[in-house]
Amino acid sequence: MAKIFECIDDMIEKFIKAQHLFFVATAPLDAAGHVNLSPKGLDCLRILDSKTVAYLDLTGSGIETIAHLRENGRIVLMFCAFQGPPKIVRLHGRGEVFEQGDSRFDELRPLFPSLAGTRSIIVVSVNRVADSCGYAIPLFSYEGERSQLIEWAENKGEAAVEQYRSEKNRMSIDGLPGLSGPRAGRED
Fold first, then answer.
1. Where are the beta strands (DSSP E) in 64-171?
2. Is the CB of residue 62 less than 8 Å from the CB of residue 168?
3. Which residues contact 173 (CB under 8 A, 6 or more apart)?
């Protein structure tokens, strides 16, 4: 059934790249805080090496992942096979947030598609790779990507998206700091 791997080997990498969707989970240190689980799609994940992955973080209504990572760094990414043989892969690790203007953001940005509403790049140093059976995961057929999030950001325009971030992405639902710098609506 479940196996632990030393790293993201060729078999795990092939599986991850075949998935159109993955989930990101984080939590604050405070036991009364809210655990966050977010779905991700749109070809926004890259495997940098056998122990490091990165994903493009797009503007959304919340800032939980970034706030949790800034507080404690803990993160897990989960990939499920909705087609083909049943399988689940989890990548546990420590995440770092690189916002626009950070040199690491600028270095990694060319690896990803150009998508309106890009907010940051999350880099995960993977310390545990595990798979499990996925026997209870239903079969679904992939029909394509949804375009609404990108269209929303394109229609709003960059200035309005930055204003939206300053209003919606400053603090997590538990009051933890979210985005930093002028793009979050703060003065330096």
1. 74-80, 88-99, 118-132
2. yes
3. 34, 62, 64
Which domain covers residue 20, as residue numbers? 3-181
- Look at the pTM and tell me if it is higher than 0.85: yes
Q: How many domains does the chain have?
A: 1
Summarised one tens digit per residue, pLDDT across range 80-89 is: 999 999 999 9
**135: exposed, middle or buried (Cβ count in 10 Å: 0-12, 13-18, 19+):** exposed
Whether 62 contacts 120, CB under 8 Å: no
Tokens 């793009």 correspond to 183
- Alpha-carbon span 5 to 155, nearest angstrom: 44
The answer as to whether 22 is a domain residue is yes
Asked if the structure places residue 80 within a domain, the reply is yes
**31: Cβ contacts below 8 Å, ≥ 6 apart:** none
Give Cβ neighbours of residue 5 (< 8 Å, ≥ 6 apart): 12, 129, 130, 131
